[in-house]
Amino acid sequence: MNEFVFKRNELLAQKTIKGLESRNMSGYYAADKAEALKLALSLIPEGASVTMGGATSAHEIGLVEAVKNGNYNFIDRSAYADKREAMLLAYDADVYLSSANAMTDDGILVNIDGNSNRVSAIAQGPKKVIFIVGMNKVCKDLDDAMKRARNVAAPMNAARFDINTPCKKLGTCMDCKSPDTICCQFLITRFSRHAGRIHVILVNDELGF
Q: How many CB atoms lie within 10 A of CB 19?
């Protein structure tokens, strides 16, 4: 990333943080992955129960590994034979780790889900939700954020799974009704009823999908 892009992202992050604060959510800026990891861990009390949905960005900054190896009760969905059991435990967790498929530069978060465990946990349940968001996901308005979520994030996520969807083959959303669609639920988070619940760490890097 060249210095001009870095500076632009830094300025944009400050605008986005103000937008989040106006929506009763907390925003933070991290210049790199290491700073993002440090910030995220500062928000997670030792001994806390921690879980997550699909959050590639949390893996990329080393957060998942740090939580697994730290003094936390990590609810690892992959360790459960019954995935539904792990998903239900998420609703009573102290901390839920996530990312966003897209967000606006005034603080609205956009997420799409197939099984809907992730978007439902973001909406309600866990006491605290921590988003790790690369600046590549910040869009100018809700229309652009929805387009990014559907035409960039969804096809890339579909490519990771053994599913048969048009977006996996064509690289763009076809508004399909395929049995394998991963776009079952759309969540737009425009305000948090509960202060101190939603925390968004904006990272001056390209993360996730």
A: 19
Q: What is the largest distance, in Å, between two alpha-carbon atoms of the chain?
A: 48
Spans of all domains in the chain: 3-203
pLDDT in tens, 72-114: 999 998 888 888 998 899 999 999 999 999 999 999 999 999 9
Q: What is the phi-psi region of residue 23: left when phi exceeds 0, alpha when psi lies from -120 to 50, beta otherwise?
A: alpha
Q: Which residue has the tokens 């999908």?
A: 209
β-pair partners for 52:
97
Work out the angle at residue 96's Cα, subtended by the Cα atoms of residues 46 and 153, and round it to the nearest 5 degrees. 140
Give the burial string for 36-59 (b: 16+ CB within 10 Å, else e): bbebbbeebeeebbbbbbbbbbbb
CA distance 42 to 26: 14
Instruction: Note if the pTM is more than 0.90.
Output: yes
- Assess if CATH 3.40.50.10420 describes domain 3-203: yes
